Amino acid sequence: MNETGIPNTSAHDVASYNILLNGTEPLNPVYEVLSLTLTQVVNKIPVAKIVLRDGAAADQNFAISNTSDLLPGTKLTIKIGRDGSNKVLFKGVIVHQGIKFRQDGNPVLTVECRDETVKMAIGRHSRYYEKVKDSEVIEQLIRGYSGLSADVEATTVQHKELVQHHSTDWDFLLLRAEANGKLVIADQGKVKVKKPDTTASAVLQLTYGASLMELEAEMDARYQWSSVHASAWDYTGQQLYEAETSSADYTEQGNVSGSTLAGVIGLQHYELAHSGRRAAEELQQLTNAAMLKSRLAKIRGRAKFLGFSGVAPGDMVTLQGIGNRYNGNAFVTGVRHEVAHGSWDTHIQFGLEPDWLAEAYKDISDIPAAGMLPAIHGLQIGKVVQLQNDPDGEHRILVKIPVIDNAARGIWVRVASLDAGNNRGAFFRPEIDDEVIVGFINDDPRDAVVLGMLNSSAKPAPINAQDANDEKGFVTRSGMRIHFNDNTKTITIDTPAGNSITIDEASTSIKLKDQNSNTVTMDTSGIKLESPMNVELKAGVNLVLSAGAALSIGGASISAAADGAVELKGAIAKLSSQGITEITGSLVKIN
Fold it and tell me: For the domain bounded by 369-453, which CATH number is listed?
């Protein structure tokens, strides 16, 4: 390696390039290329931009634009080198062209090409995955596109379920790679997904005063962590899963460590939290990824030097002569080649932005309300206006959101229920003027759902809150109740007039009572019927009264009658009275 300059085997040091259409056809040599820029950055799709002189006012025409050579869809191969010894640095497809002229400038045609991985970034998809590792999903996504190949470093966590919700395959791939501490590098239709290797040998040495033409570098303590701590909720054990790391597999540039810089702010832990159930191993991978991201963000910058085709994102470059704070091996995260006016310069980017990709690119997630109208966020308070006469017959109720328009009648809203189905379900509608909590499907204010009802001091609950929380139940507007008490283990169903059913486990009894003081009691003594008035037993066919011991019938008077025969039978029979005993019949037979 040339320690003070750029490796260069050319004889005349003249920049040269080739542009091939659809792989083999050279770009028309008559076309004047004003500039050529190739950009390749980790976690981004490589792009090439070509600016050509085109357009003539006298002809009122843009001749090159009119040809089919540089129409979107044309595949381009771009080679850059010196003295005609050129190397392929870009392959892609034209996605955009534009023309431009200004009053004081020459007319130009601008052509933009993207690596064919651009296919993965167009169109949103939703999918379920089961029993897969992230690396398997990533590889599956890449290989789902013709012309793309994958080189994916294996991940370790196997997900029982993984869901892609209305995102591009490219964005989903990026976020799953990032969560595993891996970078995505697209290059000529091949997608590499790997952790940065900062132990690799440098492909180039750049020295201030020799090979370095420009340099910007900065060190920032705000994004350096002494440790990363993550937590998630384990509902099976009703406790937190926790993971932590205080180091990263990363060789640092410069002579000030990330841990030393972390002491400037003094944050004990950089906290990550997920309220769902995430496996401990997945949580550990996330903390490792966050710490690696922190160290990659310690020193960030760029350098410019004479054109060199031997450096790419993922390589190491040695920087010298820029002071001990910044000297050392830098991890390359981006490369830009610029060819213009016969010269070729290369720029590298080193270090990485500290933001998570979902923070940096707000369009990763789908836009609220599908962009059809301004969205409404979170939950809102509603007031019930009307229950009947849904104009669409969809069992909705009319609810107004006071903060939208308190003078309006509101919007027809569906009601979430404990159970709902075809002619079945838990059926509890709120009352008119009740306060309800309202959510919105896809954050669209037109698609509202009542999620529940609310109590307050203005609309108090029928049961006062206690930490013991023994009492639960249902109370209707008129005062009808179903009441549960976990302390006494009783269930009571009653009405305001005093009709009730009480199931009491503590006294091992069930009692039915009506508002007329008629009662039926079932307990350890048996069954007892009581009434201050009459008790009538009536059977359409037979009525059988039997007892294992004695059967007693008593009253001020007893009358028994039958339309047919009457038979009294026993081992011993006795008939007696305090007064006259009378036995009559058309014929009386004794013995």
Answer: 2.40.50.230
